[in-house]
Amino acid sequence: MKNVFAMMLLFVFISCTKFTVSNTIENFAGNRWEKENIKTFDFEIKDDINADISIFFSHVNDPQYDKVPLEVTIQSPSGKKDKMAVMLRLKDESGKDLSDCVGDICDLSTVIKEAMPLKKGKYIITLQNTFSQHEYIPNVLALGVSINAVSR
Hints:
Blueprint: H1 2-15, E1 18-27, E2 32-34, E3 39-45, E4 49-60, E5 67-75, E6 81-89, E7 100-102, E8 105-118, E9 121-129, E10 136-138, E11 140-150
Antiparallel strand pairs: 1-11, 2-10, 3-9, 4-8, 4-11, 5-6, 5-9, 7-8
């Protein structure tokens, strides 16, 4: 019986493996993300996979806003574009920071697509700031996209 349980536990760990396919980060001059500065990230998938797609957002501690509205476009190798509105939340309903902070630097990673099927080929992901209150988002340090292959 112990062997069966051990084998089942091992199967669960093996079947939920995750590895990074692409991880790209861009820094912001002057710590501000201008509205017209659409960020483009491209990557190539060597084999058909399922992947979690995450956005990385680095900001100064207490950046003067609680959420960051984005328009995300994922373009597949066929040229098909999938547009979506994404709201990066920096605080929960009680006001607690959702970012991991060390000193004055805070990092937030948010999964925007889980186990998305990705066919072999080149993908392009664009992130556009849709912050309506200003022409730029202040106190932004870096922005990135991470593609993590998963098997479930």
